[in-house]
Amino acid sequence: MFSPQGPSLRELTVQALSSVERGYDLLAPKFDHTPFRTPDEWLGATADALAARGPFRAGLDVCCGTGAGLGVLERLCTDRVTGVDFSAGMLDQARAAHPGAELVRADARDLPFDAAFDLAVTFGALGHFLPAERPALFRGVFRALRPGGVFALPMGTPPPPTAPAYWVLLGFDAVMRVRNAVWRPPFVMYYRIMHPPAVGADLVAAGFTVESIDLPSLGHRRDGVPRSCLLLARKPA
Predict the structure, then answer these.
(1) In 10 A of CB 98, how many CB atoms?
(2) pLDDT > 90: percent of the chain
(3) More confident position, 1 or 194
(4) Nearest to residue 68, comparing CAs of 87, 89, 42?
(5) At 146, phi and psi to the nearest 5?
(6) What does DSSP say about strands 102-105 and 117-121: parallel, antiparallel, or unpaired?
(7) To 5 degrees, how large is the angle CA 104–CA 107–CA 112?
(8) What is the distance between the alpha carbons of residues 4 and 25, in angstroms, rounded to a whole number?
(9) Do 117 and 58 touch, CB atoms closer than 8 A?
(10) Do residues 88 and 65 make contact, with C-beta atoms less than 8 angstroms apart?
(11) Which residues form the Methyltransferase domain (predicted)?
């Protein structure tokens, strides 16, 4: 649909009517040929912002998908890099692209790590977690980091109601809510629940200290506000 190598409309429909896990298993072989993959510009901007705060030893990509974020960790970390995801299909793709990474199949809401990493990242995954699920996710990342470790979350700045993107995202979320009200299993993916201030408050509640860094290289809204920011959540030393 998006390119000759991407999924067809029929394939996307089947995936959208599946569970999150099954949907990503089906989409995995063609995922990198869709707009759902984190753009290289986002990956580069995140890596550049983190480089000044490194080097880091061990890195963890939470909800790693096909492994786009593993490349960021390989650039920044001097020791091992690890990706975790609950889709076996996505992990197969990540394994092929990053043979040197350790890949673990697990639910991000119940991460099986304890003080093992200095840097954790996640790219584009927060929309799969309802606000009530974020505390478990963030507590697991907090537990997985060593004292002084950093959790980096690049996020888009919500567009104002005067921007067409506001109404596109509103419409998408509305369609998803109707779909989940009438069809099982649910497919959780909402864009308008990822507000940086709310996410930051949940990170603080999990024990992190949080700062927000603008990513101006990713552009600005018409009102001059950067389109993207990087939340840096640090576990106290």
Answers:
(1) 22
(2) 58
(3) 194
(4) 42
(5) -75, 160
(6) unpaired
(7) 60
(8) 20
(9) yes
(10) no
(11) 60-149
CA 191, distance to chain mean position in Å, is 12
Residue 61 host element (H or E):
strand 59-62
HSE, CB side, 13 Å, CA atoms: give it for residue 67: 22
Termini Cα distance of the chain? 48
d(CA 116, CA 4): 41
Sign of CA dihedral 129, 228, 60, 68: positive
235: β partners: none
List domains and CATH numbers for the chain.
1-36 (no CATH), 39-158+195-234 (3.40.50.150)
Q: Which residues contact 84 (CB under 8 A, 6 or more apart)?
A: 60, 61, 62, 63, 64, 103, 104, 105, 106, 108, 111
126/70 Cα distance (integer angstroms): 17
What is the Cα–Cα distance from 93 to 99, expressed in whole angstroms? 10
- pTM of the model as a whole: 0.90
Q: Which two tokens mark 229? A: 């920011």
Contact criterion met (CB below 8 Å) for 197 and 229: no
Q: Nearest CA to 70 among 39, 48, 102?
A: 102
What does the alpha-carbon distance between residue 196 and residue 176 come to, in Å, rounded to a whole number? 21
Nearest C-alpha neighbor of 176 from the set 188, 162, 159, 194: 188
Per residue in 135-179, pLDDT (tens digit) is: 999 999 999 999 999 999 999 888 888 888 888 888 888 988 888
Q: Which helix (H) or strand (E) holds 84?
A: strand 81-85
AA identity, residue 8: S
Contact by Cβ (8 Å): 199, 231: yes
